[in-house]
Design goal:
The chain has a five-stranded mixed sheet with strand order 3-9-8-5-6, covered by helices on one side. With about 180 residues, it is of the alpha+beta class. The protein binds copper (II) ion (CU).
Length: about 180
């Protein structure tokens, strides 16, 4: 009886503390999240994976790149530098302003210092491989844009800030068509 009474008064004290102390609401939250973890670690692991794949939860950055010029001597990317934040979903609009048929362009994002090597490897891959080599140096590659065509490319920007590069891998275009992707 005595013990019961003691326990009763302890509960009473706790109840009073809970009522008076606003900080206690946080510990209540902590307690309930602990409960969740204890109840189903597998469930929360699945939730985590789903969250990672859901690109709608990722910050999105829109960028535009133009290809200009109508001869091998004139062709260029209008923007020689593009800037994005690290680890965001990049929505690239690539506009080919060329007119004549040989003015086919793409944009391939590469690791720092790798644009020329990637372009060389692309030439070997050829049209059947869409001029994009299988290489760890390739971060993302757009489809080939015909003269007057606009193509879109979505990719996740690198997580490590730095000066990455981009290049058109259509044969012999890399000389004039390359730029720097600044990841901040
Ligand atoms: Cu090109």
């Amino acid at each position: 009886m005595k013990r019961y009474f003691l326990n009763g008064s302890l509960v009473c004290c706790c109840f009073l503390l809970w009522n008076c102390n606003p900080v206690d609401s946080t510990s209540e939250d902590a307690a309930s999240s602990e409960e969740l973890t204890a109840e189903g670690a597998v469930d929360s692991a699945i939730a985590y994976v789903v969250e990672e794949q859901d690109t709608t939860l990722q910050p999105v950055q829109e960028i535009t790149l133009h290809a200009i010029g109508n001869t091998l001597e004139e062709i260029a990317y209008k923007e020689d530098t593009l800037e994005v934040k690290a680890e965001v979903l990049v929505n690239l609009t690539f506009i080919n302003e060329g007119v004549d048929m040989p003015m086919m362009h793409n944009v391939v994002f590469t690791a720092p210092g790798m644009y020329k090597q990637v372009a060389m490897a692309a030439a070997e891959v050829g049209a059947s491989g869409n001029y994009v080599p299988e290489s760890p140096a390739v971060i993302a590659a757009s489809p080939m844009a015909l003269p007057g065509q606009t193509v879109m490319l979505e990719f996740i920007s690198p997580s490590i800030p730095g000066a990455y590069q981009y290049v058109c891998t259509y044969p012999d275009h890399w000389h004039r068509m390359h730029g720097v992707l600044l990841v901040k």
